């Protein structure tokens, strides 16, 4: 591979790291290179009349997971403006005639070069060589290239975004298609490659509890777990699990989206896809079944795509379990008699006392004394 093309690819890899990822970790691109024969591009049969579309086919196999980003490199070992050059990626004596389209195995088509310059077809320059087309570059569109800069090389944005392929299974046959729209000039597709980056989704999981301090046996506590997809790609097959460790029993669970499966100790919320920037929330209500030690809830997020920062996929939260305090009931004075009963008792005691006094004094005392019954 020419050193200049190696430098271009290295630059693209760095751009993909910086733009496609927002975390400290990354996954490098995998390169697939066309190794077939040159594919002649038929001339257009007239002015602004398209000729037959042809394609060079590149097979991708063994790629794990969905595609995150793709870069198209129109290659070449030595760049020049010679008509019919065999060392460039696409030779053509009037590149303004050409429409180049990349088609994925899933059937998605993206026009990457469209009638240079600016779609008008007026670019009379020859040949595309070591042209890197990527969404990740800050450089302008390839559509801005002018005839004076032939042979055309460098890193450019494609005419249309390659992000249209994101999330697809890249395994299968890719096609670089070419159509000539004007009579008088011909060329060939000779060399190209695809740099494919696996899809990545940085999932971040957090968790909060409804009780800030200690818990007691028989108490209910809620745990709310939130999973945020920090991107850059959609998290396919995303799930959020809350697992309750011994000392807690699940009472109920509610998720913000998707399906929900529960057991006595676990709740799992799942969605087919969690877009970049979206969240999934799972709230679990649990019963405390112990009065000693700690009780813990562990929340974990997963998806079927690679996570560049897996360290923040789990969040646990614990509370101390303590015995419930013994309730102290204050003493209340309870009267033995009601006021009326007490007054009656006092009166009766007074009467008994008077009778006893008369009995002892006898009739001579002058105190009235009821006559005694004769026995």
Overview of this protein structure:
It is a single chain. The protein has 375 residues and is mostly beta strands. Helices cover 11% and strands 40% of the residues. The protein has two helices and 22 strands. The protein has helices at 3-20, 339-361; strands spanning 30-33, 39-41, 54-60, 67-74, 90-92, 98-103, 109-114, 128-133, 152-156, 172-180, 187-189, 192-198, 201-209, 215-216, 220-232, 235-244, 248-255, 259-262, 266-274, 279-288, 294-302, 314-322. The strands form five sheets. Strands 14-22-21-16-19-18 form a six-stranded mixed β-sheet, with no helix packed on it. Strand 18 and strand 19 (266-274) form a beta hairpin. It is rod-shaped, with a radius of gyration of 44 Å. The termini are far apart. The model is unreliable at 4-25 (pLDDT under 50).
Brief write-up:
This protein is mainly beta. The termini are far apart.
Overall CATH class of the largest domain? Mainly Beta
What's the order of the H and E elements?
Answer: HEEEEEEEEEEEEEEEEEEEEEEH
Round the mean pLDDT to the nearest integer and report it.
Answer: 88
Structural class estimated from helices and strands: mainly beta
As for the number of domains, it is 2
User: Largest beta sheet: what is the strand line-up?
Assistant: 14-22-21-16-19-18
**Percent of residues in β-strands:** 35-45%
| C-alpha Rg (nearest Å) | 44 Å
Instruction: Count all strands and give the number.
Output: 22
């Amino acid at each position: 591979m020419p050193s200049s093309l190696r430098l271009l690819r290295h630059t693209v890899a760095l751009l993909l790291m910086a733009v496609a990822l927002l975390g400290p970790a990354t996954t490098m691109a995998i390169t697939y290179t066309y190794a077939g024969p040159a594919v002649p591009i038929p001339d257009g049969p007239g002015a602004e009349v398209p000729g037959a579309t042809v394609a060079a086919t590149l097979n991708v196999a063994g790629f794990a997971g969905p595609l995150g980003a793709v870069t198209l490199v129109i290659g070449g070992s030595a760049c020049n403006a010679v008509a019919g050059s065999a060392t460039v990626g696409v030779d053509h004596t009037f590149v303004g005639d050409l429409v180049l389209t990349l088609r994925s195995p899933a059937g998605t088509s993206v026009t990457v070069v469209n009638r240079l310059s600016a779609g008008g077809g007026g670019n009379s320059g020859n040949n595309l060589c070591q042209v890197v087309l990527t969404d990740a570059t800050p450089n302008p569109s390839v559509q801005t290239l002018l005839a004076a800069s032939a042979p055309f090389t460098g890193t450019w944005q494609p005419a249309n975004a390659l992000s249209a392929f994101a999330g697809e299974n890249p395994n299968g046959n890719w096609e670089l298609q070419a159509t000539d729209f004007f009579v008088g000039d011909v060329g060939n597709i000779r060399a190209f490659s695809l740099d494919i980056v696996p899809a990545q989704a940085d999932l971040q999981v957090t968790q909060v509890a409804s009780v800030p301090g200690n818990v007691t046996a028989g108490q209910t506590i809620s745990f709310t777990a939130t999973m945020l997809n920090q991107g850059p790609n959609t998290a396919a097959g995303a799930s959020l699990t809350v697992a309750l460790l011994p000392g807690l029993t699940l009472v109920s669970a509610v998720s913000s989206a998707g399906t929900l499966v529960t057991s006595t100790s676990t709740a799992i919320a799942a969605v087919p896809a969690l877009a970049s920037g979206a969240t999934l929330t799972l709230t679990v209500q649990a019963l405390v079944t112990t009065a000693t030690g700690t009780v813990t809830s562990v929340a974990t997020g997963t998806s079927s795509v690679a996570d560049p920062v897996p360290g923040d996929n789990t969040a646990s939260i614990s509370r101390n379990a303590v015995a419930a305090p013994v309730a102290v009931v204050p003493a209340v004075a309870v009267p033995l008699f009601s006021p009326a009963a007490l007054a009656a008792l006092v009166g009766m005691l007074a009467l008994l006392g008077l009778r006893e006094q008369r009995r002892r004094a006898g009739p001579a005392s002058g105190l009235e004394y009821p006559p005694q019954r004769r026995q």
